[in-house]
Amino acid sequence: MVVAQPVSAPLTRAAIFLVVTINPGSDNQAAVRSFCADLPGLIRAVEFRDLEAGLSCVIGIGSDAWDKLFGHPRPAELHQFREVRAGPRHAVSTPGDLMFHIRAKRMDLCFEMATQIRARLGDAVSTVDEVHGFRYFDDRDLLGFVDGTENPRGQAVIDAAIIGEEDAAFVGGSYVIVQKYLHDLDAWNALPTEAQERIIGRAKLSDVELDDSIKPTSAHNALTTITENGKEFQIVRDNMPFGRVGIGEFGTYFIGYCRTPRVTEQMIENMFVGRPPGNYDRLLDFSRAVTGTLFFVPSATFLESVNGDAPAAAIRDPESSLEPAPPGPGAPDGSLAVGSLKGEKRYE
Predict the structure, then answer these.
(1) pTM, whole model, 2 decimals?
(2) Of the listed 97, 129, 141, 147, which one is catalytic?
């Protein structure tokens, strides 16, 4: 029975995002493979300290790391994060072999989980980014707006985020893109509320979406809505605010799961380039991306099958316990083949 990692876990009050690179050497690669098989047990050990705190941990694996650790077969759409440049706006691509998304109702459990992971991996990896996120009032970001209102719910989460028969060797997997955005809050807060609402596309207090008659086509929520032939394609976001007051750092950690990276990539391109080109997301006048990485999230079943001595083979069980998902945007029939979703044209 194929079991997915907990990409659909509920939103929590605390999170840690940890990104590492694997140090050179076959011994380090073997250590990471061994860790993958041990991770479920490590999670259970930390989770047992407070079973009601909702601890979860998702591991994602970068394109280069996949080749080193597992070889072939490869997830069909795994590649390096594709940077996007448009004038002064730049969606950067940054290093990352492994990504850990740790969530719980308590930050101390997240911290303990991250500590155990880092101790277990030891000298096999080097940390390149670590962000401690927190829930801010009623699920708002530091810009003052509710974040994640249009997240899918129920079965729609599985349909949006979990790979189905379109990549049969990796049923139960997912793709995740992470970006760390830093905000110029002084400039943002100097704007009238009405101007902020037109940039986001929602009322700040009520979170109600602005009417199309007054919402600009450059609004953030307009550019990040992806449709084809009348069907909307969704991602599962679990963004978190973060910051360090003493040095004036205020930001949002974007994390989006999807059964194909092309949906999230199109959202990013719409934001940075514009739809049509030039009609970009004005939020980027106040926020800049300082990281950008794409990872594949294998199923929990795959992780438990990994052998520390040799690359693992993909797991495929025709009696999978996952509900069969409808053909998704990553299907080989060419769906979602609009513009850059084919992965052929990028802006620089």
Answers:
(1) 0.90
(2) 147
